[in-house]
Amino acid sequence: MLGLDLAGCAAVLGVSGPQVQLWDSTGQFAAPRTGQGRHRRWWRTDLYRWAVTSPLHLADRVPLSHWPAATGPRPYLGARLIADSVALMWATPVGTMAVVWPVSGRRPAPRGYLSPLLRAWGVVGAATVAPGLDVGGPVVESLPMTPAQDAGSPLSWTELSALIGQPLPYWPLPLRREVLLTRWRPGQATVEALAGDPELDTDALLRMASLYKADHPAARLLVELARTVFRQEAESAGGEIDAVARAVGAGTTVVAARPMPVPAVDLDDVDEGTRRAGWWEILCRQDTLAEHCLLQMLKWDNGADCPFGHRFTVRAASPTVDEWIARLEPTTRSAAFRLLGEVDVDEETLRDPATDAPVVRRRDGDEIELRAAAPQRLRATSPLAEIILDHPIWVRTADGTLYPAPQGSYWGIGWGYPGFGPNCLALLIHRLLDDINARAADSVNGAPVGLQRLTRITMPRGTVLTREQLESARAGTWQPTRDDFPAGYED
């Protein structure tokens, strides 16, 4: 081990060289490990041991991993809110120590922001609890209280527990809520609480459900979604507690909160037709609660049962775009427009009568831009007649109606390259040839090889693929050639 000279000791402690020389000359400084005179050397561990117990009050300059273990339970000083976190504080023999728990669902404050706040409360040592586990238990990170303190100093859950001389309380991630953290006291029995996804506002879902009778599709959808969230988060919290129990040492941990048991449930317990009807009800509402609920539902599964999938933007004119624009109708703003992002007050809200899809028209410089949601299914009564490769891709039925091609909530569609988009387009074509009301592609697999080969070909924008061509491609008896596309073809 390489020793430190006086200048090195000053740097480690974050004090001036003259200050260390003064301590040394007055007999207040740590004894050197080796050497004499100018050749004296100090080991870092000895330096920390001296600093943390020195009457000069230098504990804030020593990483917690070098603090002495408590000989018995230390007094709990309570909890304080700090930058979307809760700091639990204890009185240790060398000063006040804080264990900072970020509240789930909130953005943790930068480490450099926490230290000055804690110091203002008299805290001289702190650690933060991070998500996840390591071989010794929950992950904890020592929080530097001074610029000179080593930010990378390792610290284990067992070491942290030893500093307070008693088991540390533990909350699984779904139960790291402000109210549970601040109400905890040493010796308190484990509490049961409803686990929930911190990123998803289930209270809003249940408030909206309360506006309907219990058997209404919207109520059934919202209640079942909330129950599904509670169930999955309860299972997650329970699994986390079990994993912690296997990882931590004896006497280091007390479970502060457990999830309340939730009956087995799944959103699929409500049939797809009811879920879709519930979505329609919420999309058509014009209140802010409906918009908020819509955002929560999108967070859950990206709108798997929503009538609309991917949104598309139209900036360049084409015959199909002009035909589509001509039929759009003005409409009042509803929750459905949240599918298109933020809608400014000066943007025009429109409706596509063929799909009921929301459309927003706005001016972008000298150009007009339209944002719209693609349907996940077509409400057509006539079979597929042709596919038009444009931006977006279009479907025309035998009765002449033009529709934006269905798109799912996850996979998009495209053509002209080997990838997910063309594979999804091939699957969509395969389904629409059999059933014009079929669901949008929900996988990159499942289409016949002939259709996959077709959609990977680089064909010019505006290419029209007839039903006969599509059926032949599906059967493997036709593929376009350069003669079909004088320009813009690439196999």
Q: How would you portray this structure in words?
A:
The chain is built from 14 helices and 18 strands. With 491 residues, it is α+β, with helices and mostly antiparallel strands. It folds into four domains: 6-56, no CATH class; 76-166, no CATH class; 197-306, no CATH class; 308-475, no CATH class. Helix 7 packs across helix 10 (288-301), helix 12 packs across helix 13 and helix 13 packs across helix 14 (467-475). The longest helix is centred in the middle third of the chain and has 31 residues, at 217-247. The model has no long low-confidence stretch (mean pLDDT 93).
Gap from first CA to last CA: 66 Å
- Specify the helix fraction band: 25-40%
Helix/strand-derived category reads alpha+beta
| Adjacency order of strands in the biggest sheet | 1-2-3-4-5
Q: Please state the CA-atom Rg, rounded to the nearest Å.
A: 32 Å
* Unreliable residue stretches: none
Main sheet specs: 5 strands, mixed
- The residue-averaged pLDDT reads 93
Tally the helices: 14
